[in-house]
Give the backbone structure.
Amino acid sequence: MVNEIIQIWSRMTAMAELRVSERIRLRLGQLSPAERRIARVLLSGPPTTGLESSTRLAQQAGVSGPTVSRFVTNALGFGNYAAFQQALREEISARVMSPVEFYRQHHRAEAAPDLLARSGTALAEAVAASVQSLDPAEFGRAAALLADGRHQVLAAGGSFSHLAASYLAGVLREIRPGVRLVPTAASERAAALADMTRKDVVAVFDFRRYERDTQEFARAAKAAGARIVLFTDPWLSPLAEAADALLTAQFAGPSPFVSLAPAFAVAETLLTAVADALGEDARARFERFGGIADQWIRHWPSGPGEAGPGEAGSAGAD
């Protein structure tokens, strides 16, 4: 009995630490049809939808007022509708925080004396929290989509998150064919959309503050019939409602800048699952890819007297 109480308390504590959008996502599979209608309104509408009255939210979802109350208290774990709205206000405030304000908040905080220890702890905690909090069902769908050889996989990101997209594409192409990185240039994205088919999967990285051109590219891909695997932060990109698989990562780190380390960790974990799913095909592709690449890599100079490509016999010729 004591163990059951402890487990219930642990689940309640964990739920209390989650943001509104995360709570909704985690409970989607356990909601009644009426509660799912409320969840869809909150996830697909503007972030301020939940700040309207419970009566107005009930009307938008086509449910009764008591259903909204049960959804907020029983499903999401809030004491009442007012507590739900206060949490939502805090989430919206954090969601729209600019990089400049993030930088200011960092410098208003008291600096710890040991940067190396502080950095290691902060990054380790953010990476662990990101990987351990991944929803198994969403993660499974993402892995299945990227492992399916019938689909071409395209990866795209924003100003900085394109680095994570590049990493995902760079590793994924070593274990399966049909992988393409879509650069941020408008002409590159237009070309990708011109070739888009219903068999394609697009891995999109979109973090706060969410970039309109990345969202427009992803929505156009979705309209063309492609499936979307979305990497985003706990506040959720506006693309969340269009995603076929949703993976969230923390972004907190030791610096005044947003950290991509947790996003890389989530991507690497997903790549491991894809490699496991592909099995022998992934190993054979990896060996073939590496064998071709090695023919180029080992010709570059690695020490005095060794010639690079096109320079055979020229070392030390002067």
